[in-house]
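User: For my dataset I need records formatted as: sequence, then structure tokens, nothing else. Please produce one.
Assistant:
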Amino acid sequence: MDARLNLFDNQIAMKAGKHLAAADRALAGAALPAATQELVKIRASQINGCGFCTDMHVKEALHAGEGDQRLHLVATWREATVFTEAERAALELAEQGTRIADAAGGVPDDVWDTAARHFDEDQLAALVVLIALINAFNRLNVIVRQPAGSYQVGQHL
């Protein structure tokens, strides 16, 4: 399977992609735990059907020391006992932020309030930016049908 458009070989796509990647790298210094960031990226990518990003972030999480069990359970995090309350709050915010079009009022107050109990203002800002960015990356890859499975750790970071 080939992508409709090679995002990694097109000048315009690469220029825009570098800015998105720079915004993503800016979050690396945020106080939001790296494990939480990867879990959020994986969950949003699953919801959006982005195989490329799911593959990428599962591999990056494994490389960073995340366990297989938790990665296998991200899609069913509500029923899993392996996530902290803070991670669960982040995953819920990620789901609500990813499915924003499904809710007439956007992210519900109770979801925001739960996240705010677990994360300070800077961490919340990082989480919101992270959710927006992964959704942007997902949309780019889904639109062009970017194939999944060949990502190598560190390849596009």
